[in-house]
């Protein structure tokens, strides 16, 4: 329960910080902003279909912009590269994001003259500053290029930096002209689509803008191996696969009719999904179709684990020891639970450390699917230790098969100490004050029985 409360508190904080509600609801963005990055390098004069590539592009874009001009929830801006000076690599934001700028964009497109070389990387790197920092929006980049004069070798690195910034939801790349011109891959920079003709040119543009406004519905169904839905709540996080940044956080649950809830998410993003089971359950690169309900089925094999004392009655209080839980063979601590607590884990092997004195280690403990693993821990005994007043320091060691293992230090300021120790044989080493002689060091052995009190008087060994 302690771990669950902490985990839920953490998820609530993440949830508030990302301004997204529980149960899969999301805060609607004010608008969608689409930055068109247009290739205007020399090769755009090459003939393609009915005319030069630049002429075809101007015709397609002008008609397309007319069709989206009246959509108040979409803002468009225009950045161009390869048009400033002959044989120079330049880029400029020609028309920034603003309301009712459609005429400005169309006017600029009409006057574009291919004049230089390609600099996709520079244009893409500069694009982050093109998006306003205020107002919630889904920011999308649309690159239109023929790929002919691509002299930038670091497009993948730049694209990764842009995506990692968290400013951009998705980058789309439209490759016009011959497919052979794209022998180098632009997939690393975004979602690449080769456009073989004018008809598909227009259709692809419409599809991108349609996707920019659509949402995906996701129904998460978490069940056991018999397809029975889990009734327990499980925290779930959706991460952007490319950036690793959390996009949505929710709590899986079902209602009284055993119906899971529905999340509304952005279909432009591929997600790495984490279910906060123990250990976590990861689903890599999940893509959901827009405009429909996507069912995501997850099958879990889980069991419970509990440790408790063997039930012997004592006249002293037995500590409620913490138990460190690790996956078998791994160093990272998966969970800390206490004796008499039951926790749910994925089926598998686990290594346990009961933080008693000395530490009790249990390796390869099996948690079976749909089963309860119930382990008994010996009830510790109590050692009443009396020391000479002149003792400066002392230590307790466990003795097993002739080998010593350190347990704890004794308090030099106390004549009498009470230690709760697990059953077994022990050795106490005492050193007098102001003495470095080995002959003055005293060694006392004693035995601890489960549930029993043992008096250890070093004055009368």
Shape: elongated
CATH architecture label of the largest domain: 3-Layer(aba) Sandwich
Query: Which structural class do you get from the secondary structure elements?
Result: alpha/beta
How many structural units, i.e. domains?
4
Span from first to last CA? 46 Å
CATH topology of the largest domain, anyone? Answer: Rossmann fold
Count of alpha and pi helical runs: 6
Number of strands: 29
- What name goes with the CATH superfamily of the largest domain? von Willebrand factor, type A domain
Compute the gyration radius: what is it? Answer: 34 Å
Strand order of the largest sheet: 5-4-1-6-7-8
Helix content: 10-25%
Which stretches of 5+ consecutive residues score pLDDT under 50? Answer: 1-28
The largest β sheet comes out as: 6 strands, mixed
CATH class of the largest domain: Alpha Beta
Proportion of β residues? 35-45%
Average predicted confidence as pLDDT = 85
